[in-house]
Amino acid sequence: MLNNFLASLPFMTETRAELVINGFLPMVKAAVLVSVPLAIVSFFFGMIIAVTVALIRINQSNSIFHRFLVFFVKSYVSLIRGTPMLVQISVVFYGLPALNIFIDPVPAAIIGFSLNVGAYGSETVRAAISSVPKGQWEAGFTIGMTYFQTFRRIIAPQAFRVAVPPLSNSFIGLFKDTSLASVVTVTEMFRVAQQIANSSYDFLPVYIEAGLIYWCFCFVLFIIQSRVEKRMDRYVAR
Prior knowledge:
- Helix content is 81%, strand content 0%.
- The protein is built from nine helices and no strands.
- It has helices at 2-7, 14-58, 64-81, 85-95, 105-130, 134-142, 147-177, 189-200, 203-237.
- It is elongated and about 75 Å long.
């Protein structure tokens, strides 16, 4: 029945309908087992980098070591933001072996994605932290808190609410960008779609189906993002 329905659509034939039906579960499976975990792990490590870079840049220390750190993280952010993610992943997987550094496909993809998320996320986190009045820092120092205690207990909860929407969008974008991992032979959803299309030499229906599956996953992420933002609004309103 489904086969007949798909075959009745424009540009579809029975062969294409069968191809789309047979390709659906493998692509969804690859999305659930590879693409989503890849995005989550990369985003987690990327946020660690982002917060670290943001804290280094907003720290007011004038020591030589801190100045070196600021120069280093600014150079890192500039380099990552000024080059395509595809190039970054390719350098990690295909370029580092020239230095006798060999990294497996999945870790290489995670490193590339994490570095990219860390650079872009650091600007979001820095802006969110800067939006908190400086008096909040001074209040924490006044009652004897250290720099990191003040950040963790006072600044971070307030900055987190500001950072949630843009960081949620970054995660959704990262999920879509996991398709680039196919370049380093990671068998995520888009690579599965490529394999199916290559086996049949019929690319249009398979790639359209892959795009629709990406859209469905992103739609679920949009709903989760909306609910998280509403919950944060209620929390702040209390």
